């Protein structure tokens, strides 16, 4: 192994040693090379050599010769921290207690070491939370330092302590005025080459302070009042044209929304997020919509002012931005803007990616159900969605739409004419075809009448209607469920037309030998109605669609539909077979008994 290898290579060679003697030889050669470089005063490789010595020391080999020129303390700290982070919990507790006993964080003077000590304390508090009280006094005193690195470490440490201990949180709430003054100094300070990032004075420290203020001001009126003026000052004086400024403003918005801030300040925060929506950076637009999604329920009117910008984000090329814009647009739908916003959502549905269609259709259905201005508008919206993306709708869409059509009595004629047009235009959308078949079967007489005040009526004949249903039955695109709807609709029409009953019988009898068991069973049962109980078919079909409930059949009913002794209910078949229980006769008896 060459003496100049990297730490990773040295670790690989040591781990690959087959015997302890081979491992010892590798370490001795590497230590000899490190000694030689120390004697040559090669400062360029000193940090790499110290890292190697740290690893050697962790393996249990002597590395005391590396403690040179202010490095001993650093090695001890690095060793203890590394041990606390990577070994077992009990050993880590011992190392943490040793380090706390030494009181290094109270005695370190060099700023670099103080910053490292504060960050080391953060890791130890995360590892052993009950030791956090040991660092509370030191963390409080570090806030008086002038060095930004030390302040950064102190703020991170205080944040960690406050998140893990409610008592510590109450103690540090007294430091809110000091943190406010520190933040004001950063906001109002002039140009400083040492800390300036894109025109913002130390944005990293500003973000950390704002995050700590958010924790301290949460659910506390006094702390929130103390920082309201500061947050307004940061929101108005920070330039958002650069990423650094946007980061500070975003943290300011989160703080405003999380504390008990004034209403005007919350509106200002929402306006900042609205400006973020106009940013060219897609990441900024994404986090802006994510934040607006969280606050839309509490500040709905403030978010509504940016509805146009949010809708424009639906046209973004990025899929993540589109999804966030869709979720936020659906959350903004209300009874006031349902018509205008639904037009935008339907337009988006026609061109949205396939992976978003199911979510879009579900959101549109929910919004239409909650805020529909009229039943006709509700039906038209759902039919539009089925026509555009019928293959991506939920399974319950068909029964829900059928229920809606059933309750809209005055729109039966309008609906059946519109669905018939859709059926003869395209039969590829299964959900739309199922609803159309059901509606034709229920209200076919209104369609054949050719009169409709709500829309231009379609002049159709009985043959035209049967041709449309037969096309659905014979199409290779029709699913078994769709064929079941079409066959049932055809059977229902036998009670609504007069000249084509024989054709309906012929269509139904064909499917008595269908390969699909459910469709075959349904056809056989319908054929039985035609052959044995033709005098009852019209009554039964009326019972299926009657809104007033089932009506009693005559006393000449066959034995299959015999009344119980009390004469109020029909005798049901006794069987454990689900196929018989779900058959036509069993369903008819259950319907009559309801």
TrEMBL record:
Q: Where in the cell is it found?
A: Endomembrane system
Q: Which UniProt keywords apply?
A: Membrane, Protein transport, Transmembrane, Transmembrane helix, Transport
All copies of the Clathrin/coatomer adaptor adaptin-like N-terminal domain together span: 116-533
Q: Which GO terms describe its biological process?
A: intracellular protein transport; vesicle-mediated transport
The UniProt entry, under Gene3D superfamilies, shows: Leucine-rich Repeat Variant
Q: Name one Pfam family in it.
A: Adaptin_N
Q: Where, by residue number, does the polypeptide cross the bilayer?
A: 68-87, 99-119
Q: Which domain of life is it from?
A: Eukaryota
PANTHER family hit by this protein: ADAPTIN, ALPHA/GAMMA/EPSILON
Name the record gives this protein: Adaptor related protein complex 1 subunit gamma 2
| Organism the protein comes from | Oncorhynchus kisutch (Coho salmon)
User: What is the gene name?
Assistant: AP1G2
